[in-house]
Amino acid sequence: QVQLVESGGGLVQAGGSLELSCAASGSFFSINRINVIGWYRQAPGKQREWVADVDGSGTTTYAESVKGRFIISRDNAKNLVYLQMNSLNVEDTAVYYCNARTWASTNYWGQGTQVTVSS
C-alpha cells in the first residue's frame, strides 16, 4: 500500500494560495519512528529542492525561497502533514513531494502532487 499520499495540488493564479496535505497510513509515524517530515519540490529540468521541514516537536524550518509565504504543520495523531502556500508565484510551479524521515535517516516519499501557478 502507498505509505504517503499527497493531495491538494492544482492550478492557481499568481498571488493565490493552496494547501497541500500528506496523509500517511494508520500509525505510520509511530510504527516507523518518523522524526522529521518535510516537503520537497521538483520543477521540470531542475533538481529536487527542499522546501520545508517540521520535526517531532513541531519546530519548523523553511527554504529561503518560501520563508514567510509557506507554513508547514503536522498532526501526529492523524498522520497528516500540511503545507499552506500563500502568495504563490510562477516559480513555485513544481511537483511537490512529501518526505518522512526516520530516526535512522530512512526516507519515505509520496508520489507527488502537481502545483501549477499561472501568471
Alpha carbon gap, first and last residue: 37 Å
Strand content: over 45%
Rg value: 14 Å
Report the uncertain regions.
Answer: none
Gross morphology is: globular
Could you give a short account of the major beta sheet? 7 strands, mixed
Average predicted confidence as pLDDT: 94
The run of helices and strands is EEEHEEEEEEEE
Oligomeric nature of the chains: single chain
Describe the structure.
It is a single chain. The protein contains 1 helix and 11 strands; from the N terminus they run βββαββββββββ. The protein has 119 residues and is mostly beta strands. The strands form 2 sheets. Strands 2, 4, 5, 6, 9, 10 and 11 form a 7-stranded mixed sheet that branches. Strands 1-3-8-7 form a 4-stranded antiparallel sheet, with no helix packed on it. The termini are far apart. The mean pLDDT is 94.
Provide a concise account of the structure shown.
Helix content is 3%, strand content 53%. It is mainly beta.
Provide tags for this entry:
4-stranded antiparallel β-sheet, 7-stranded mixed β-sheet, 119 residues, mainly beta, 1 helix
Give the topology, please.
Elements lengths: L3 E4 L2 E4 L4 E7 L3 H4 L2 E9 L6 E6 L5 E3 L7 E6 L4 E6 L8 E9 L4 E3 L3 E6 L1
Parallel strand pairs: 2-11
Antiparallel strand pairs: 1-3, 3-8, 4-5, 4-9, 5-6, 7-8, 9-10, 9-11
